[in-house]
Amino acid sequence: MTEHDQQPVRDEAKVSRFIENFAAQLVLAGMPSMPARVFAAILSSDTGELTSAQLGEQLRVSPAGVSGAVRYLSQQHMVTRRREPGSRRERYVVQGTQWFQALTNRDAVLKRWAEAMREGVASLGPETPAGRRMAETQMFFEFLEAELADLMERWDARRRSLGFTE
């Protein structure tokens, strides 16, 4: 076996520091702590998937903590569940496109928010200070929605050009 045939060796202490540091960044962005840690752990696994038991052991947390975190991440479209064939055990998976999918799903949220602002403008009156503020917010959400769609299309083309096909 040559040096090039050997698998790279992971420094688990460094991986653990990465998980905690990245999770802290996700928490600063508004994600709850346990889902942030679980997401970072799955993302940093070589396979991109871990079981509840593996997550509990790696993060030193209870099965209930893992379960709640995975539920949150599933609702946010950041992880998917995959049942092991012939087993009741599930594996939690992060794919390379998870960020893309999570952001793309924000499109529906932006539409709902824009509609809520539209109703606010109608309720408050478009000429009132609050109505004008709501109208600007509505236009901002509509702008984001349009730009996000274009941005995601450009990213998809770029990632394919870079050889990522997952």
Report the end-to-end length measured between terminal Cα atoms: 30 Å
Instruction: Trace the largest sheet across and list its strands.
Output: 1-3-2
Name the assembly state.
single chain
SSE string, helix = H, strand = E? HHEHHEEHH
Biggest β-sheet: count, sense, barrel?
A: 3 strands, antiparallel
Number of strands: 3
Overall outline: elongated
- Which segments are poorly predicted (pLDDT under 50) over 5 or more consecutive residues? none
The radius of gyration over CA amounts to: 21 Å
Mean pLDDT: 88
In helices, the fraction of residues equals 55-70%
- SSE-based structural type: mainly alpha
The helix tally amounts to 6
Beta-strand portion reads: 5-15%
Can you give keywords for this protein?
3-stranded antiparallel beta sheet; mainly alpha; 3 strands
Question: How would you portray this structure in words?
Answer:
This protein has 166 residues and is mainly alpha-helical. Helices cover 66% and strands 7% of the residues. The chain has a 3-stranded antiparallel beta sheet. Helix 3 (52-59) crosses helix 4 and helix 5 packs antiparallel against helix 6. It is elongated, with a radius of gyration of 21 Å.
How would the blueprint of this fold be written?
Blueprint (H helix, E strand, L loop, with lengths): L11 H17 L4 H12 L4 E3 H8 L3 H13 L4 E4 L6 E4 L4 H27 L4 H33 L5
Antiparallel strand pairs: 1-3, 2-3
